[in-house]
Design brief:
Strand content of chain A: 25-35%
Helix content of chain A: 10-25%
Radius of gyration of chain B: 17 Å
Oligomer: heterodimer
Distance between the termini of chain B: 55 Å
Shape of chain A: elongated
Largest interface: A-B, 44 and 38 residues
Structural class of chain B: alpha/beta
Number of helices of chain B: 8
Largest sheet of chain B: 7 strands, parallel
Helix content of chain B: 25-40%
Strand order of the largest sheet of chain B: 4-3-5-2-6-7-8
Number of strands of chain A: 6
Largest sheet of chain A: 3 strands, mixed
Strand content of chain B: 15-25%
Distance between the termini of chain A: 39 Å
Order of helices and strands of chain B: EHEHEHEHEEHHEHEH
Order of helices and strands of chain A: HEHEEEEE
């Protein structure tokens, strides 16, 4: 349930980015790497709850789940880790030692606000 | 109108974490964030460390739990300073909670502050506390697949401890797979085999901690 804390973080960052404090936010674009374990439905539920009576009330939360990358240290073969299962420990091509890169990012990429005019 | 933001969701927490880190450093303390699943042996491991670390250090413990103060009571009963954080359902500690706990702990270094995070291998990974070192603990009866199933926590660790090593041979556990799993998510961290029950391997962790410990 860390989505509660993440929703609070998203709201704070989004409100801090507003050109005018009363501008209405229609959409928040979030990047969350697959290692962060962010669950969209839970995040939206918490966000809806805490954003009531703020300029971000009813804003749509769009989450881009950035994948990680597994790279073989021996043959350099690289493939995507989408977070849906355990990390592969042997390179599927040469059975060499692999290493996982990326997937821990978590930031508000952009916010969309209602037209100022 | 689209406004580019590109700011970390945890940016407020990150600022507080830096303040905690500064404060720890100024008082000669080294924060150690200990992450593991429930039952891996976090508290037993901290107790072993407290008893084995060199004399002359002033160590303390911050215990994070959803509820209750069982672990804190245990540590205070052994004569070490400890303070409790209750998250009331929250699944991880954050830097604000640790800032308040440091007020309550009120110790002066040189020494270590062991911060026992909530037993959970997912959420604690996203929240920095002001620690200098991160220890991830796995234990033999949990199975050999924990690093590859929870890559965030094991990937962040400065050292990985495999506790309940004395149970090897009594439960299903493929040591080779475990080691390869740690390496796949964390190329550099030392891996320590430990048994908090027998004391096996604790000395090696103490040596590693001392080498990374408070300036003399």
């Amino acid at each position: 349930m860390h989505e509660a804390a993440i929703a609070e973080g998203i709201l704070r960052v989004a409100l801090g980015a507003l050109p005018r404090p009363e501008a209405r936010i229609t959409q928040i674009n979030v990047v969350a790497g697959v290692l962060t374990g962010v669950e969209d439905e839970s995040l939206r539920m918490w966000f809806n709850q805490i954003s009531q009576s703020t300029p971000a009330q009813d804003a749509k939360i769009v989450v881009n789940h950035l994948p990680g990358k597994v790279v073989c240290l021996e043959c350099k073969h690289a493939f995507v880790y989408d977070g849906s299962g355990p990390v592969t420990v042997d390179c599927p091509k040469c059975a060499g030692v692999v290493t996982l890169e990326g997937g821990s990012e978590m930031y508000v990429d952009s916010v969309e606000v209602e037209n100022e005019n | 109108m689209r406004i580019d933001v590109r700011k970390a969701v945890t940016s407020d927490n990150d600022i507080q974490a830096v303040q905690n880190a500064d404060r720890l450093k100024e008082t000669g303390l080294v924060g150690v964030n200990i992450m593991a699943s429930p039952g891996a042996g976090k508290t037993s491991f901290i107790v072993r460390l407290l008893k084995s670390l060199p004399k002359g250090l002033s160590n303390g413990v911050i215990e994070g739990d959803v509820a209750g103060s069982i672990d804190t009571d245990k540590i205070i009963a052994l004569g070490y300073p400890a303070t409790q954080i209750n998250t009331d359902g929250g699944c991880h500690l954050d830097a604000n909670m640790v800032a308040k706990a440091l007020d309550a702990l009120a110790i002066q270094g040189p020494g270590f502050v062991f911060i026992e995070n909530i037993g959970n291998l997912i959420c604690p990974a996203s929240f920095r506390l002001g620690e200098s070192l991160i220890l991830a603990i796995a234990s033999v009866p949990e199975g050999d697949d924990k690093p590859v199933k929870y890559p965030a926590v094991f990937g962040l660790a400065d050292a990985v401890v495999l506790n309940k090593h004395d149970l090897l041979g009594h439960v299903e556990f493929d040591m080779n797979f475990f080691l390869k799993g740690v390496r796949a998510v964390n190329p550099d961290a030392p891996i320590f085999n430990v048994s908090c029950r027998t004391g096996e391997g604790v000395g090696a962790v103490v040596e590693w901690l001392t080498a990374n410990g408070p300036a003399k």
